[in-house]
Protein: Kynureninase
Amino acid sequence: MADSATSRHPLEDLQKLAKEWGVPVLSDEFARLMDINDPLAGFREKFHYPKMGDLPLVRRVDGQPPVDPSEDGIYLCGNSLGLMPREVRNQLDTQMSQWARFGVFGHRHGFMPWAFCDEWLLQDMSDLVGALPEETCVMNSLTVNLHLCLTAFYQPAGARTKILLESQAFPSDHYAVESQIRQRGLDPAAEMICLKPRDGEHCLRTEDILQTIQSRGQEIALVFFSGVHYYTGQLFDIAAITEVARASGCRVGWDLAHAVGNVPLRLHDWDVDFAAWCTYKYLNCGAGCIAGAFVHRRHLGGGSRERLPRLEGWWGHRIETRFDMTNQMEPDETAGQFRVTNPSMIQAACVRASLDVFKLAGMQQIRCKSLLLTAYLEHLLKHRVPSCSVISPRDPQARGAQLSLLLACPVERVLSELEARGVACDERKPNVIRVAPAPLYNSFGDVLRFVKVLADVMPTDLN
Structure:
């Protein structure tokens, strides 16, 4: 498979392959050949992929042949909940066995002892986000981690009191920011700078973000964005935004819920102050699973010029003296100082199973296939479902694994018909369907099947 992680548009790679194989890009045979030549094709078998007979909303559709219950569904919802790695059961069985056999001794004995189970994840998690292990911690859930980081890094002083974020950031981010501002006795309406796309556009332009930072930097205490926008799939230029924000004296934090496991990240090199992410979307660790956070090394340990204000708990205490029970806090010198309580060994086992898959596949190879999948999806939609508008960035390098489709008809009706035919994607009101082919377990055949089903269920008077 061609390397599309270049300056070429991945559609050029698809067209080049089609020419070499002597088949049209729009043909069924092209999808079949892409899957045969996909270096990640075997990773689908590392996941439990839903079957038609197990999907709860599949039903018999008038005029359609009966559903084959043994056929794979069309799962394109990894941006909401990733599929279950098969290795999860083995990891969980190991922990359950150790609990049954060892009791309390499981804290310090066996595979991934519970007193250190989060630390067993740090090397591979830090590799995934482009960080040092000491800058990474696995703890809590996403919004809890955001609150812990905001408590430390949002320190309004003098004229610098405002937080810059997207007007349509994920609601939980807005709620967290608003509550943090109120906790400091300030007014969210006055202290939040919420950037909107230009009239008639769906995505923020990087130049507009940078211009706002440069023109209002003296007012801004914190720039806080999502790495990949949940609604549009836009991949923000984390490096450029961070560089300009820090040059303007602002601290910079990122919500990477839709970015981790989706796009390559280099948080340390980009000099990000902090970041937080969940693990149940592209990381495939299970609903509500334990989350992750990053704090740059310059804020930690002996090299830090300041002691960040933190909400503290016993798991942020140095492991060497944590159990001495002196009631004298000795903060860990790593990002682990932000931990407040012990992690669940069950959730850690789920993360371990997922990280093993990512380590084997590699993010560069995942990103390469992702660019091809979304380019292929966009090309098929253009030719087979022209009534759909893609509101995700047209530049493949400026988006993740998700295309958001703007419909010119009621979204509930279309989604219901898709689900009846075994498609798993989701809606975002008022009229957007999010479609996310995840490279680890989705195929080009899945994308082709989805577009055929979508074309079939769209009202004919719109085509």
Remarks:
- The chain has two domains: 10-72+363-457, 89-359.
- The chain is about 35% helix and 10% strand.
- The chain has a mean pLDDT of 95.
